[in-house]
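Work Package 3 (structural annotation) set out to generate three-dimensional models for the target panel prioritized at the project kickoff. During this period the team completed the workflow that converts sequence records into discrete structure tokens, so that structures can be stored uniformly alongside our sequence database. As a representative example, we reproduce one entry of 525 residues exactly as it appears in the project archive.
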Amino acid sequence: MSEILDPQRPHACGDGERIRRRTGEILVTLAAVWAGCASPAAPQALAGEKPFHRWGRLANPRFEGTAIRTALFFAGQAKDGSNPYGCPEAPPGNMLLYTVSPVDQRHLEWSSAPANRDLALQSMADCGINVASMSTWGEDFLACSESWSLWAPMQTSPQSQDEMFIAAGGKPILILPFIESRANWTFYNEFPRWTDGRVAPGTVSQIIHLVERYLQNPLHPEWAQRWAQVYDSSGRPRFAVALIHAASNRLGTGDHAAYAEGFDLVADAVLAATGVRVGFFIDALPPGSNAPGIFKPSPALTGPHLLGTDSLLGVQCFIPEIWMTGSPGDEARIKWKREFSRRWEETGIPFLMDVSPGYDAHLVFPGSARYGHTAAWLAALEGMVETWGCDGLAYNSWNGYTEGMAAMPLRPEDGGDIYNAWLRELAVLPSRCLEFLRGDANADAESDISDAVAILGYLFLGQPARLGCPQSADTDDNGALDLSDAVYLLSYLFTGGRRPDDPFHACGLDPTPDGLTCDSFDPCR
């Protein structure tokens, strides 16, 4: 049995679980008898169909086919004067530079107790986040002052990342390494090749370090299951890596093909060194902006080349509106972000719609832009997720306290529960984009006895272990999965009961949105 629990269904144990399973067995048998069958039919695959692996979707067991809903996360203790990771001296404190703070101080005490780490990751999962983008700041052989201690907002050391992989065990959340820029190293200064011809040597080195530490660690083989795998454009799973500031100072402004090819060069270098196939989500910096880099990718001009890049998994931006020129107000930033998002989403490349509650780093970065944190801003970005977020969601960030970006409940003066509730609403939106057939719980393009069996098996026996489209199993359209759904379907099939509501005979979206999701439904693809 997989160590990662199903994010859709609560789990029981002991006598309660035995009673639950026995009840399920009885109900499944009754369903078969009701239909006049000798035994319940097992769900069948569509004849002649091959598994459909959608580009940009998760490939890990128990998450397969699911849209990514990620939040950028800085693992580690607050910079509170402590030194839990053994640096020569305690990293400089920054808590007086926070523009927002959590109401629960345990979110600042990551290294103090395993329970605090469990709280952080479980809180993300409770909001609907299924992938934590783990901020990383260089290899473990670097001195603290050469990697994370001077620039990361938390004590984001390699040891804190080990703690994150430990804490992720048994939780419905995966980890996606997110390679950051540092004052002494940036991706865009070496990509695609360094001056000596080597392929992005710092990038390759950091990825190899991560692979050896988390995928090939003989002391912790279980960690490999916790790294997010994502399907590439050919349907092949790759271990995902996110790259911030994905521009280039090594290319000219028109070198679109060389830029796209560079990602495959990096992936091939990692494959040659480790035998592991990786792929990339890129922070596409906008052309014609204040963003760094001589070359910055354009949806219209670079997009066609990126469509042919084997290792590209998608676009995952980090607040691209921060790079706008001039001093735009919120209305102008919203208009710009809509156009930026629309253009990238229309390329056909998987696009994780990035959102943030706003930005306020006036203490740590005096003179920097301040925007958002208003009802109008939140509503506008929610609309963008509804429109361009079908491939997934990227929330920036879970605990960016110095930049006014956080998602756990905050102090009342910092917004209280507003942003936490907002994230919970946003996280279900990518899963409302797929068309489905109500009553076809096993996704075989038919509504019959096998669907009632699938519903009962899922609810009581853990067979199937997950439903790719819980909305399809909500036959009575009450927004919940329970015994009544199987009864409702059986009544329709065999005793003249009311037929399930649309979408029933034809693929469509749920006309009554609720908390249920639909991450994969092959008959309507």
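The first helix runs from residue 14 to 34.
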